[in-house]
Amino acid sequence: MEYVTNKIKPSLTASIFAFMSVVLTISIGGFILGTISVHTCLILSTIIVCLIAKFMVGYTFDELMGFMAKSMEKATFGLWFFVAIGGLIGAWMISGTVPAVIYYGLGILKPVVFVPAGLILCSVMALCTGSSWATIGTIGVALIGIGESMDMPLPVTAAMIVSGASFGDKMSPVSDIPNLAALGAGADLYKSIKAMFVTIAPAYLITLVLFILVGFHYGGKEADMTIAIETRSILAENFNLQPMVLTPIILMLFLNLKKFPALPAMAIVIVYSLGVAVVFQGVRPDIALEVINSGFSIKTGTHFIDEILNRGGFQSMMWTFSIGFLSMSLGGMLERIGFLDVLIEKIAKKAKTVGQMALLVMCSSIACTAAFGDTYMPIVMNGAIYKKEFDKRGLDRAMLARLTSEGVMMSAPLMIWNAFGSFSTTAMGIAPSEYIQFSFLNILSPVVSILMTFLGIGVVWNNQKNKGVRKFMDVDLSNEPKFQDI
C-alpha cells in the first residue's frame, strides 16, 4: 500500500478527532436524529476530515482531492460491479429465471424448512460464485418473493439471505474477500481459509440451529398457502417457466467454478439471459437490452408480486452507487493520511495476551469498515498494519487474515452506509436496521472467534511449541520464519 511521507505524521489528537468525527457524524445524523440521509452524513464527514487534515496536519486541498481521486482508481472495479449487478437482476427477471426459481421454490419448500433451507442455498451459491452480492441480487431476490408468499417476515428472510451470502463469500477461494485478506496479511490463501473454518464452523452451526427454531416459530403453525398458490398461478400466466429459463444460473455457476473473472462472467451471463428472454419469453431485443439500464417492469394486477418482480437495472443502483462513491472517497483519504496507523500504534503496545490482540484487530477492522464504507480497504489495510506485530509475537499471519475477514465481512452488511449494506438495502428492499436482530451469523462469527481466542482455541502459531500459550511473555520466539512482504 502507498502512504504519503512528504508531510508530517498525524498527531494522536488529530487522528482521534478525524476518526471520531466520522463515527459521530454518521451515528448522530443517520441514527440518533434519523432525519439526515447517509449521503449527507458522508459529505459532512468528508468536509470535517478535510479541515482536520488541512489545519492540524498540513495538507493542501489539492493533495486531499488527489487522495480521493487515487482511492477512486482502486474502487473502479467495485463501482462497475454495481452496474453489472443491476443489469444481472434485470436480465434474470425478464428471462424468467428469478420467476421460475420462485415458482418451483414455492412448489418444493414448505414454510417450516424455508429459513434453514434458504440459509444453506445462499451459502452454497456464494461459495460457488464467490460473490455475496450476486447471491443476494439473484437467488436472494427470489427467496424474498418465496418468503413473502409464505407470509414469512421480511426481516427473517433478509437476515437469512445475508447470513448465507456472507458465509459463502468469506469461505470461497474464488471470492475477493479471502484473497484480499490473505494478500493484506501476507499469508497463504488456503491456510487462511483453513484458519477461518475453525471459528466460523461453530458460529454457522449455531446459526443453523437458530434459524431452524425461527422456522418452526413462524412456519410451524398451519400455514395459509393461499398467497403461495396465487403467486404460482400469476407467475405461470405471465412467464414461460420451462426448465430452460434456469440455465443462466447454471452458466453463472460454471463460469465461476472455472475461475472466470467476475465482471466478464457476469457480462456473459447477462447477454445469455437476454437471449433466453427473447427466445422463451418472446421479448423484443430492444426491450430486452433496455433492462440493463432501466430494469424490469411488469403489471400483473397483483401489487405484492409486482413489487417482487419490478427490480434491476443500473438506475436502480444509483442510490447504492452514490454511497459507494462518497464512502470510498472518504475512506481513501483517511487511509492515505495515516490517521488509523497512529491510533493502532499506540493501542497495539498494550496488548499483552493473544485474546487482547485478536480483540484489537477485530475492533479496528469493524471500525474501519464503518469509517471507510467499503470492504476492500479495511481488509487490506488492517492486514498491512498488523502483520509485523503478529510476526513479533509469533502468531501466524493466517490468523490475522481470519480476524480481518471476520471483522470486515460480517459487519459490512449491517451498516447501511457501507457499500455492502446499501446494496443489500436496494436489492432486498429492507434496511440493515430492520433485519439486524435476525443476523445471527454476522453477529456470532466475530463473538465466537474472540471467545475461542481468549480460551486458547483456534490460535495459529508459527511455532507449534507455543500451542496453548495465552500470554505473549511466555511465547517461544526461537526458530521463527522470515517473511518477505508482498
Briefly say what this structure is.
With 486 residues, the protein is mostly helical. 73% of the residues lie in helices and 0% in strands.
Explain how this protein is built.
There is one protein chain. This protein is globular. It is an all-alpha fold and 486 residues long. The relative contact order is 0.15. It contains 23 helices and no strands. The longest helix has 31 residues.
The end-to-end span amounts to: 10 Å
Structural class: mainly alpha
Estimate what percentage of residues fall within beta strands: under 5%
Major sheet characteristics: none
Observed structural traits:
mainly alpha, globular, disordered N terminus, 486 residues
SSE inventory with pairings:
Elements: H1 12-32, H2 38-57, H3 61-74, H4 76-94, H5 97-108, H6 111-129, H7 132-149, H8 154-171, H9 176-185, H10 189-219, H11 226-238, H12 247-257, H13 262-280, H14 285-294, H15 303-309, H16 318-337, H17 339-348, H18 354-372, H19 376-393, H20 397-411, H21 419-428, H22 432-435, H23 440-454
Helix pairs in contact: 1-2, 1-17, 2-16, 3-16, 4-7, 4-13, 4-14, 5-7, 5-11, 6-7, 6-8, 6-10, 7-8, 7-15, 7-21, 8-10, 8-20, 9-19, 9-20, 10-20, 10-23, 12-13, 13-14, 16-21, 17-18, 18-19, 18-20, 18-23, 19-20, 20-23
